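[step 3/7] fold_predict: job queued, chain A
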Amino acid sequence: MGALATSVLIARPMRRTLRGGGLGSAADSTGRSSHPPGVGFAALGLRHTALGASLALLLVAGCGGGGGKQTASVALPTGCSHVSAPQAKRVHLPPPRETLSGPATARVETSCGTFTIALDLTRAPKTASSFAYLARRGVYNDTAFHRIIPGFVVQGGDPTGTGTGGPGYSVDEQPPSNLSYTRGVVAMAKSPVEPPGRSGSQFFVVTAADAGLTPDYALVGRVTAGFDVVQRIEQLGSASGTPKAPVVIHRVTIAAG
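[step 4/7] structure written:
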């Protein structure tokens, strides 16, 4: 990843019948997104706004240097701490060789508090196991929620912080055909050119009652404790997805059994 990463995404109104397609890889330069092709940031962020024309959004993020400045001028929700944007890090891991069995949880400690994800090893054994593998290798430690859209999702898990990064491998696992992305569901983000069920390291937590997405995004699990923390994080979002202030994942801890 260079010193500057730029991704241009075209936003249009969402329809649930739209599906992702094409072929991609965890290493391509397309920004990972929890949208299928043609789904608009602003349309989903505002939920009830119809966009008749395309909206081009230019997302520019630095990858390196001193880790970003603090935004102490931004009033944070109670329970959130002022932090600096973390430094970008390069990750290139081999795929996991083992699949977890039995119940497992992920404890996500952030600058706005801690929430817990119950990993769905029954319906998504490969994806949930990959998430646990990345957590145990420290990939998520000191990374940011780089995309936060109120009333839609909070998204993180990119070690570069640009929305274009990944772990160096990808996992393919078709989501359940009846999966609905309702409040608290955790799933993996993918770029529009990647096939349904492909994932790297980026994940999102649904904050909408129903995000209205087609079942293209690999399932991880569901937030079972600390959803109020996710809602605090959500308050620092914007319709464009750019956070008003950095929100950092300090560490993710996996507990099995």
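[step 5/7] annotate
Helices lie at 41-46, 125-136, 227-234.
Confidence is low (pLDDT under 50) at residues 1-30, 35-70.
exit 0
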